[in-house]
Amino acid sequence: MSINPKREVFASLARVGTALSSPTRMEYLELLAQAERSVEQLATLTGTTVANCSQHLQKLRQAGLVVGRKEGLYVFYRLAGDEVVAMLSAMSRVGEAYVAEVDRIVRLYFAHKDELEPVPARELLERARKGLVTVLDVRPPHEFAAGHVPGAINIPVHDLEKRIKELPKRREVVAYCRGPYCLMSFEAVQKLRKKGLRARRLENGLPEWRAAGLPVDAGG
Amino acid sequence: MSINPKREVFASLARVGTALSSPTRMEYLELLAQAERSVEQLATLTGTTVANCSQHLQKLRQAGLVVGRKEGLYVFYRLAGDEVVAMLSAMSRVGEAYVAEVDRIVRLYFAHKDELEPVPARELLERARKGLVTVLDVRPPHEFAAGHVPGAINIPVHDLEKRIKELPKRREVVAYCRGPYCLMSFEAVQKLRKKGLRARRLENGLPEWRAAGLPVDAGG
DNA sequence: TTAATATTCAATCGATCACTTGAATACTAA
DNA sequence: TTAGTATTCAAGTGATCGATTGAATATTAA
Predict the structure, then answer these.
(1) How far lies A69's CA from each of A75, A104, B164, in Å?
(2) C20 C1' – A52 CA distance, angstroms?
(3) Which residues pair with B68 in a beta bridge?
(4) pTM of the predicted model, to two decimals?
């Protein structure tokens, strides 16, 4: 059949690469890493047409990165597994290390990344178990319900000001969101500090937390 | 300047994805992970024309995955860093887990992967330090010289039969090559066993060994 | 300076890609 | 069955990609 199995494997892996070669699809993957979504939901969230979204999803499916589940009229897509999150993280590390453009944007818009003293995942787990911090999930409720850090409180970042009383005043707050390129936890920390609370960011979002094998609760 | 930094980052990461969307470039990356190479060397090793090879290399360079070093008439390219190897490993894990085609090929041609009882890297490091195994690098001498497992013996797989006497008879041999999709160490183990030696494979190649932070010797 | 060599550039062609548009399919509820 | 909705399919367009070819550039040696 084949003379060179290595090249066959590379051909298949190149299809995975092709799936990762579109900014739109990267955004889909970030969203699907939070929770499963129907085609229309994804299209609405990203501002694309349904037909175009469907086509992108099929490319991702053919590459093995997402799987679909049909339920009645709807088809719900989700990431194939945590390995996909790990792969995206590895791509991010390459980008931040070697792509000048990525470094530039991160320095410009995520400058607070270091200033805000991000909390490593395992450190947060320990301190949360000891009751030393309040864990705050600032994503939309649907994504919170699909999986969140055990014990976390869900207040979407846009509701934060009016619902800030729900947070204990003295304990430090650690906020997290969708991932390293999601601005919601940055905004949240700024708002919390402005109100006089001690607040920091989790170093990454929930998908990376889950991919690291840390505990995740669902529902709520 | 920009309204959505996330999309800008994804746009840059998509360029990395584009660089990974060609089987030819995947092969270049595997070779450059072993040792730096000139354009012509790479072209010869992969059977492409020099002009085509040069164009591919520039795509890889624009994506930040490789860097070039000019020396006289030659330009030597190499991987930008170990993060690139980690990223390729993450892609391989996704492929093996979720792409049926990859799984099929691996089962078909690398079926011995489990039968040959691959040795984990850290286990090899320990056993080599205790002098319990002979470490055998079956790659071409140029790649061996650019970096190898400390204490390894270099016998290219094609010379193995006639140089087999160079190996201690009683000690188990652990062979390694370029990486998980390189057949050389599989061949080597088969040849060694046919000659009555105890032989196994290292689970991965030298690039993964180096990326894991394990010690590497050069020269020789 | 001249000749030789390694690499890159530029122009070209066929194939694929992203996106749009409009129709077809699959499923649900009345 | 019929109407309504979510998704997919199919065709078309402009853009990009991979590879080829031939010329241009940069460096070295005579």
Answers:
(1) 5, 39, 55
(2) 9
(3) B77
(4) 0.95
